[in-house]
Specification:
Layout lengths: L1 H12 L6 E5 L6 E7 L10 E7 L10 E4 L4 E2 L2 E2 L37 H12 L14 H9 L1 H15 L3
Antiparallel strand pairs: 1-2, 2-3, 3-4, 5-6
Helix pairs in contact: 3-4
Pfam families: UQ_con
Protein name: Ubiquitin-conjugating enzyme E2
InterPro entries: UBC, UBQ-conjugating_enzyme/RWD
Length: about 170
Amino acid sequence: MREEVDYTEAVETFKDENLVRLEPWGMNVDHLRLTITGREGTPYAGGKFMFEIKMGDNYPFSPPYVYEHTLLWHPNIDSSIPPGKINICLDLINPELVGKVDIKTGASGWTPSKTLTNVIEALKGQIHCEPPFFNPADPLNFEAGDQALNNYRKFDNKAKEWTKKYAMN
């Protein structure tokens, strides 16, 4: 079962990574809880951000469904979108971009050769503000994207405020 292989690979890859925690949501490894801790030097420092990952019946031919549960101020994640919908702007997990490449950015959609580890690395890049995964020029949350591009100090302050309010224990 590909889900088990990908889960085992991801656990092994991130076993020494203190900013990433991956565990089954329930009894099966096709429904996972991923917690990414914000890295120092970012507006998300010290915050714990929880993602739900579901590998559907057509996995690995379709990307996993990923939903970010922790409220955060981020250009590429929109906390106002309810569960069941996509609240993360990331080509890799967009079901409409399977097998496609964005000529302008070089970003590629899901292919069966991609793995859960690829998804976790991309989500970690978003929380750790690493380009190309942190991409305010292609926002899902347009207000956060505009702030990150045109008034970073205002963006940084609001992201830190939300991190402290919603992502700290």
